[in-house]
Fold:
Amino acid sequence: MAENTTTQEQTQEVKTAVAKADQKTEVKEHVNLQTDYSLGIFGTSDNFKMAWQMAQALSQSTVVPQAFQANPSNCLIAIEQANRLNMSPFMVMQNLYVIQGKPSWSSKFLIAMINGSGKFDQELQYDETKDKDGKPFSCLAWTMKNGRRVEGMTVDMNMAKEEGWLAKNGSKWKTLPALMLRYRAASFFASLNCPELTLGIYTKEDHEDNVIYDNTVDVKAQVEAEIAENANTIPFDDEVIEGNA
Structure:
């Protein structure tokens, strides 16, 4: 009986060993990635691999905004922006909105970037006026640099009306005009005086009001417009037509 028990145990050990040998296990080797983010996350393959791992981890978090949850590609873009701004990726993600497929900063974050950039001698200041009824009417963002005044562009309620910002459904221009004047004044200031801080990205409020200055040309639409405009405007010479017939 003892011999049979020993034989059964040995047989079981052999079966277990064979089963383990037949299993297809994926062995992940530990590799030390050599990263240098001064070259950007796309500068080297190791930089990209590390950034992609970070993006996948962030995308699994429920704390990040919804646009980044289960979306490592969006997280990767946020990491790239954070690297260029030398900021925390989480901070960028908290203030980067995706509107109609385009990234957009929050205006308050844009103001914080300007004030914290160290490019100017003081924080943004605002020259504000009111109309005859005492309601907010205009705003100009400005600051100082090396003893000289640096200004943006004056924004007023007439501009808001003519540009159609007031007419939009749910527009904050109707309920919070003073705040919107400051936001737009700060956005114009950044575009004119420190575009390197915005990285070419407009604010969330700019997108909502369609304050987008796009120089690209829709060639197809342009050609169709020219065809429609010039259709049947060139007279035909009957003699030439008959001569070629």
Observations:
- DSSP finds twelve helices and six strands in the chain.
